[in-house]
Design a protein that fits this description.
With 677 residues, the chain is of the alpha+beta class. It has 27 helices and nine strands. The protein has four domains: 131 residues, Endopeptidase. Chain P, domain 1 (Glutathione S-transferase Yfyf (Class Pi), Chain A, domain 2, Up-down Bundle); 64 residues, no CATH class; 160 residues, Neurolysin, domain 3; 244 residues, Orthogonal Bundle (Neurolysin, domain 3). Helix 7 packs antiparallel against helix 11.
Length: 677
Amino acid sequence: MENYLLDRFLTPYETAPFEKIQLSDYLPAVKKAMDDSKQKIDTIANSNEATSFTNTIEELEFSTLHLDRVTAIFFNLNSAETSPEMQQLAQEISPLLTAFQNDIMLNVALFDKVKEVYDNKSLWPKDKEAVMLLKRTYNSFVRNGALLDEKGKNQIRKIDEELASLSLTFNENVLAETQDFTLHLENEDSLKGLPDSVIEAAQDEAKSRSLNGWVFTLDYPSYVPFMTYSAMRELRKKMALAFGARGFRGNKNDNTSIVKRIVDLRLQRAQLLGFDSHAHYVLDDRMAMSPEKVNDFLADLKQKSMPAAKKEFEQLSQFAAEKDGIQQLEKWDAAYYSEKLKQVSFDLDEEQLKPYFPLDKVIHGVFEIAFKLFGITFHETNTIQKYHKDVKTYEVKDENQELLAVFYADFHPRKGKRAGAWMTSFKSQYKKESLNSRPHVAIVCNFSKPTSSKPSLLTFNEVTTLFHEFGHALHGMMGNTKYPSLSGTSVMWDFVELPSQLMENWCYEHEALSIFAKHYETNEVLPQVYIEKITNSSNFLEGLATLRQLSFGMLDMTYHLRTEALSESLSEIEQEVMQPMNFYPYVKDNLMTTQFSHIFAGGYSSGYYSYKWAEVLDADAFEFFKEKGIFNSEVAQKFKTEILEKGGTQHPMELYISFRGKEPSNEALLKRAGLTL
C-alpha cells in the first residue's frame, strides 16, 4: 500500500493527505524524512567550501522541512484524534526525534561551522532577519549543549530523550483520567438547576453510551455547565473532587512520580549548561530575561489584586450564606455562587446569552472582524482533506485574493481528543527563491456539540476562547518572513499571547458584537441592554480570577526555580504556594500539579506568567485601538505589519515599540480589571 507521507504531498496547496494516511505510514515516513535531513546536514557539516551564512545557517534552516511537516501531522493528531495505538507509536517516535535533534545540536563539525560564522562579523548577513536567524541558530546550539565536553553532551542526550517520553506520558495520563470518570444520573430530581440545553446534551451523551438518563463527564463542555448551574451541592462536590484528583489517585495514570522526575531532569539539564535553575535557563531567552523580574512582576500584581480579591470573597460568602445558609464556601461552590451573584448583581444570566452565540454565527463574526481589520477573507472548501468529519477547512485570501493560508477549525469534544483549546500549525510559512510558501494553521477547541434540537450554542466564555485561539491563528496565518523558524508564532514565549489576548477585546465591544451576536432562531441582534451588562460585568470577581492565574504562575516558578532535587511532597509545595491566594479550604486529595499540562507537557515551563505578562501588552495595545477606533485601518495595519507579519525576526520590545510608539504600561490592565485604587 502506498505511503502518502513519504514525499511531497500531491494535494491542493500541498495540504496534509489526511484521508490517505494509515497509522502504519508514520514511522517509515519519519525515518525516511530523518535520513533525508541527515544527508543534507552531513553535506553542510563536511563541505569543503568556504564557510558562509548561506551555505551553513540558511541551508541548515531549510534542511528539515519535510520532517517538520510529517511530525507536525503526527503530533497534532496525537492531541486531537488519538488512540492507544497512536500513543504507543508516539512513545516510539518521540525518542527518535529527540536523538535526531541532539545529533544536530551536538554535531561538532556542524557547530564549528556555525560558530565560525557567528564569531566572524565579516560573514554576517546584512538584513535584520538573517542576523536574527544567525543569533537564534548559534544560541540554540549553545543552549542544547554544543559547548559541553563529550560526557556532558551524552548526559544532555539522555535527559532530553527521557523528558520527551515523560511529557507524552503525562499528557496521556491526564486524558485517560479525564475520560475515566462519568456521573450517570437516572433521577430527574438530580438535574435541579441545570438549563435545558445542558440536560439535553447530557441525555445525548447517555444515549451515545447506550445508557438511560443523563451522563456528565469531565470534558469542559459538560463539566463547566454542571459546576455552574447544578443546585445539587453533593453532586457538584463529586464532580469537583473527580476533576481535581486527575493524575493524583495512586493508580496507573498517577503523574506524581513523573512530575518529580521532570522537575529534577530539567534542573540537571540547566545546571549542566551553567544555569542556576531551569527558570534561569528558560528566562535567559525571554522578554522578562530573569526569574527575579518575573517574581517581581507576579508579586506586584498579587499585591494590587489581593484587596479586591478579599472583598470579592467576603461578598460571595455573604451571598451564599444569605441565599442558602452556606457557612463555608468550598471550591465546588465557586462557579455556582459566582454565577448566581452575577445574575443578581448585573441581571445577567449566561444561559440567556447562549442563544445569541450560535457557533456558526460566531465563526462568521470573527471572520468578519478579521476582514474589517486586515482585509482577509475565509472561504470554506471541501477540496482540502480533513482528519475528522467535524473539522471545517478554509482557504484564507488576502486583500488581493491571493492565498494567505489554509485554515482548519476543529470545535467539538470527542473520544481521543484532549481537553482545552489550542492553536497549532501543520506547516510554517517561509520564502525560498521566488516562492512565498503559505502556512497551514489550525485551531482546536472543545465547545458544546449541537443537540437534536439546537445548534452548538456558546457561552460567552467560549466566545472569548474562540477569539483567543483565532488571534493565535492570525499570527500564524499572517507570517511573512523568509525563514520558517522565525515565522508566525515563533516568537519569545512571553510575547506569543499578545495577538490572542488582544483579539478577546472585540468580544466586549458593541460595534463588534452587533456583527455576530444574533439569536439562532430569530436572528435578532443581542439587545443593547445585554451588551451593556456584558461590558459592566467584564471585570466581575476579577481580583479572585487574577489571584488564581498568579497562583498558577507562582507554582510554575516554584518548581522551576529550584536549585536542588525535589524532595518535598507535591501537596506540600502546592499548599504552601497556592493556598495564600486561594480562599477556599484546601482539599487534600486534589492536586493542580498532576494535571498542569501547560508546564509539564506543553511549552509553558517557567512561562505560565506570560499570560499575565501578555495581558499588560494587550490592554496597552487595545487602548491604542480605542483611542483611534476599534476598526481603525491605520492602527490595524500597523499591528499587522509590525507584529503579525514579522514573527520572531526582531526582539519583541522593538516590534511592540514600532507598533505602539512606546513601551507598554500596566496602567491599562489595572484600569480594565478594576484594580486601580
